[in-house]
Amino acid sequence: MRRATFVIEDPGTSGVEDQFILPRHERDEMRKEYDFSKARKNPYARRLKKQITLRIDKPTIAYFRSLSEGSGMPYQTLINLYLRDCAVHRRKLSMEWRASAR
């Protein structure tokens, strides 16, 4: 059986690639329409993410919205991906607090 390999590369990684291998019949035989009338929501989806409220300044939102237009992803998803990348790589923000002159 012939297989198609789809490789997603992230230039920021150390050469680690995720590979998704689909059999040829799954790749070539896409239907024109699919019936989702009997579909149901993923019962585990609520456990994957938690809705919270963040206050983000306008320039930051504008930056992620501009990235969103180029990538076709919602800007909220891009913010989540960026924050997840920071968490996975244990990146820490370098800050210095100065005493205010009063």
Q: Concise description?
A:
36% of the residues lie in helices and 12% in strands.
Please tell me about this protein's structure.
The protein has 102 residues and is of the alpha+beta class. It folds into two domains: 30 residues, no CATH class; 42 residues, Arc Repressor Mutant. Helices cover 36% and strands 12% of the residues. The chain is built from four helices and two strands; from the N terminus they run E-E-H-H-H-H. Strands 1-2 form a two-stranded antiparallel ribbon. Helix 3 crosses helix 4. The longest helix has 14 residues.
- Percent strand: 5-15%
Please identify, by name, the CATH architecture of the largest domain.
Orthogonal Bundle
What form results from the Cα inertia axes? Answer: elongated
Strands of the largest sheet, in order across it?
1-2
Number of strands: 2
* Helical percentage: 25-40%
Tell me the span between the first and last alpha carbons: 76 Å
CATH class of the largest domain: Mainly Alpha
* Count of alpha/pi helices: 4
The overall pLDDT average reads 78
- Runs in which pLDDT lies below 50 for 5 or more consecutive residues are 1-11, 13-18
Integer count of domains: 2
Order of helices and strands: EEHHHH
Structural class by SSE content: alpha+beta
CATH topology of the largest domain: Arc Repressor Mutant
Topology of helices and strands:
Blueprint: E1 3-8, E2 18-23, H1 24-28, H2 45-48, H3 58-71, H4 75-88
Helix pairs in contact: 3-4
Keywords:
elongated, disordered N terminus, alpha+beta, 12% strand, 4 helices, Arc Repressor Mutant, 2 domains, 102 residues
